[in-house]
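Morning run. Coffee first, then this:
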Amino acid sequence: MNIDTSSPVMLTGSTGYVAGVICRELLKAGLTVHCPVRDPTNESKIQYLKDIEAKSDGTLKFFKADLLEDGSYLESMKGCSVVFHTASPFVTTIPKGKEKEVLLDPAVNGTKNILQSAKETLTVKRVVLTSSCYAIATDGTDTSAAFQKTGKLCNEDTWNETASIDYNPYAYSKALAEKAAWEFVKDKDCNYDLVVINPSFVMGPGVKVHPGSESYGFVQTLGNGVMKQGCPNIGLWVVDVRDVAKAQLAAGFTKSAKGRYIISGTNTGMMQMADASG
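And here it is:
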């Protein structure tokens, strides 16, 4: 993998749990990273990234942008060769009737906004979209259906067919957003190619503690007494956040990369994870 550091790259969601680790990998590689955020003057939100920058060979530049404001990413995208789009809401508990506002619109329209801005920025040669294994399957119903059709479990050819606005709206948002992305690059004459990373449930150490992260919240429930009445024996597919970051770098700079890539480290269960946490 040849990493060209002569051009900057853009990373959305840089202050988030997963993107923070991606940002560290990009800086470690010596890249100039453009970070669009809602408020670049809010030092409390970005200082920890600057601390990482100070110990790396790379450079950070912050810009003001909003996921649902058309064209707001154009300034931060100027001159960039690769765009890493990770910004999308990860919320599992949503008030009824708020699914479209909280999940679907930011996921789908935000992705379209990024792809349109990249189309208008001729220096962009690749967009790496962080989707999810939830765009591939919601639960065992999808995996069983895939097995019945192909004799195999889910792979990169599988699409989530069971999620809806009423049943696991988060999974639905990921499937809709990724489908919208593939439709966009198919219908538009884009100057870039699209590579999609589909991680399973991302766990592991971030660059700082993110109390609002669903991943951090999940680990807390294994030790704070929430499940003292009993831990459900639910199966999970899990991947280390550091491996997701490395996969992003490879997707951005490996010329032969194309299509979708499932990034998953292991299949486990909540009881096994509780044992490991203990």
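The mean pLDDT is 88. Good start to the day.
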